[in-house]
Amino acid sequence: MRIDSTSGTPGEADALLFVAEVLRRECAGSGVVSVGTVSIGYGPGGTPDAVVVVPAARPESSALLLFSAHIDVVPVEDPSAWSHDPFGAHIASGRLFGRGSSDMKSGLAAALVAVVELLREGRPVALAVSTGEEVGCRGAASVAELLRGHPIGAVIVPESTANEVVLGHRGALWLRVTTSGRAAHGSTPGLGVNAIEKAAAVIGRVSELPLLWHPRLGWESVNVGTIAGGSVPNLVPDRCVLDIDQRVIDDDSARLTDWWMSQPEVSAVDTVLDLAPVWTSADDPWVRGLGAPVSERPASYFTDASVLVRTLPAGTPVVVWGPGDPAVVHTVDESVDLRAVEAARLHYVRVGRAWTGADSPA
Fold this sequence. Notes:
Its cofactor is Zn(2+). The chain has helices at 10-28, 101-120, 140-146, 195-203, 253-262, 285-288, 305-308, 338-354; strands at 36-42, 48-55, 64-70, 90-92, 95-97, 125-130, 152-157, 168-169, 171-180, 184-185, 213-214, 218-219, 221-229, 235-236, 239-248, 266-275, 278-279, 318-320, 335-337. Strand 11 (213-214) and strand 12 (218-219) form a beta hairpin. Helix 2 packs parallel to helix 8. The protein has a 6-stranded mixed β-sheet. Strands 13-15-9-16 form a 4-stranded antiparallel β-sheet. It has 8 helices and 19 strands. The protein has 2 domains: 10-169 and 277-354, 3-Layer(aba) Sandwich (Aminopeptidase); 171-275, 2-Layer Sandwich (Alpha-Beta Plaits), CATH 3.30.70. By secondary structure, the chain is of the alpha+beta class.
């Protein structure tokens, strides 16, 4: 909590390496026999962006129960608005205050302690920790690479769900849409082609997007998040760029990308982010055995599971289940109830002890 691991800052790697060192120390036990193997993944430029710990020894056919967390946090815009230092780990009235306390360092802490305990017992469990989740799951690719060769039988993402089991979330398709025009003096707009006006025409047809519906995930959505075009009032803009956030219920990015490309005003469409939806049935035998309340609603956000599901066998159960309070995520005075963190740890240990490591959940 006291390491400022804001996405895109050096603190991300500092916090990640701190977690790696804790895992190495705790998995070493007496120093004679290690119970876990810790690996570090690196992103572009050689910056650490993922840590994974797996059992040091396990039967070749056993599948792992994976806990997948992230270490990065969103920025603190105005520290003076907080009642306490946002990176001071202040505790009052049984709550831990600070940026990332609910999203999701509390879930990470509960999972880390549980996984170390389970590894010491010889259980087939693993923990993955990434950076860059808040800005598009950037470290998740390294997690997937570090897990290559390790069969995964089920995944718990200890995000902020108030310890309710959440069965999934929509994916995300972020596109950068460009319209092109022809520059001219602002006093003679008829001699040019206004790229902003072309973009406005496309925006006016957004309601025609072929959005789909899922009985559990709900409707897909689209948000025109930014528009950038022109430089001064007296110049007809020859370029305009839209950033589009679409939340999707299937893994077919071409369906929506093709719609944007088919608009006559559009000159280019670039994919900025492409994340798969995640959904597990409440009737899954492993889910039924978790022994915790199951939410009827999906998570509103995406998680690293959107990247991992593309590497898992079809039907692998994935749930979002952690102690953080979704009502205070990303807010001033973000906090978490420490009793909820301990409850999550106990849940994880119980579920880990029930996991046999067979090809299908016990």
